[in-house]
Amino acid sequence: MSLFAQLQQRAAEGRPIRVGLIGAGKFGSMYLAQIPRTPGVQLVGIADLNPANARTNLTRVGWEPERLTATSLDEAVKQGTTHVGDDWQALVKHPAIDVIVECTGSPPHAVDHILEAFAQRKHVVNVTVEADAFCGPLLASRAQAAGVVYSLAFGDQPALICDLVDWARTCGFPVVAAGRGHKWLPHFCESTPETVWGYYGLTPEQAERGGLNPKMFNSFLDGSKPSIESTAVSNATGLSVPSNGLLYPPASVEDIPFVTRPRSEGGVLEHKGMVEVISCLETDGRTIPYDIRMGVWVTVEAETEYIKNCFEEYNAHTDPTGRYFTLYKRWHLIGLEVGMSVASVALRGEPTGVATRWNADVVATAKRDLRAGDMLDGEGGYTVWGKLLPAATSKRIGGVPLGLAHGIQVVRPVAKGQPVTWQDVAMDTSIRAYQLRQEMEAAYTF
Hints:
Elements lengths: L2 H11 L3 E6 L3 H9 L6 E7 L3 H10 L12 H7 L3 E3 L2 H6 L5 E4 L4 H13 L3 E4 L2 H18 L3 E3 L4 H14 L4 E8 L13 H5 L3 H6 L4 H8 L2 H14 L18 H4 L14 E6 L16 E6 L3 H9 L10 E6 L9 H10 L11 E7 L8 E3 L6 E7 H7 L8 E5 L14 E2 L5 H12 L3
Parallel strand pairs: 1-2, 1-4, 2-3, 4-5, 5-6, 7-8
Antiparallel strand pairs: 7-9, 9-10, 11-13, 12-14, 14-15
Helix pairs in contact: 1-15, 6-7, 7-12, 7-17, 8-12
């Protein structure tokens, strides 16, 4: 039975999937916009540090006031309405809730929320992929031990890429490469929240109108978010990562099967079976027509002459050899698609992407020369950007994962472009996110 048919059945039986949302910012608001239009789902509660802002966002996306009359979670369950508050622990602990959607964007806090959800036997859809990037494999194993499902969020590019990889492998195709698109030039890694809108292609007025956070959007532009998302894909699918960071080869949609081949065959890959990110800009800054900037893709190989001929017979666009074919989705709808994950984990017991190994990592890298006494401000800020590296390399150099590089002090100089290591910072070792990361590092040998 399809997911939608199962949702309709749950609605008819009066047994909706009951959801708790932690964090009602931009991503969360996009999911909120779809919930009233989805049968068989009830949002029991929202926990946000600023409940008034959460209510404003609910109004912005079209929620009717009568849906928000509940004065408690218990009342919300009985009425079929939604409670808005600031107590995430009460939300996670409520016995009626089936699925927690973690949507705060704060990696250390996300780890706390997720671990408590597991303790309460709740499924988790984790939108805060930054947390998955530095401890996803351990979060996945904790979920399994608790008998619940932990999942990446459909609509975000990592889950969509995982879906394409699963399609390819299920059909019998070897995956040569997979990834997402991006707007990239090398100097973007130095971008700060003050320069982001000009590089990104928005005016400050457009950004203000949309309530867009310059630091968050800068995390996309400066390469941090593409590295984070590529890490999640690598750890979920087993695809390897470039040895010294993403290459961002420029390509149109039509050129993806040309560039996502091994170097020995005219492409950019070190070998087959890798993640990569395609740039929508030529190296001189010119815009590439029909780009994949907002989309995802997978390149597969025809291993036999018969399959190669099938590509040709059905007009599949391939590289010049006819062996490499790219399937793509040119757009992703972000929070508007999260319902796929909620339904999948609750009805099928299946994640839409989940870490299965520690294959890759995102290491905080200095945007400028850092001095002792400087405070790191995390992804998208003024001090560091995230560089994708093999997990073995990160562990060998003692790299600080970008998700933990916020609000910690530098204790010795780090040159621009160099990785920040544990020895370079005064880390708060009492937080659970740090402890989980150390546990993961101890569990993996390379």
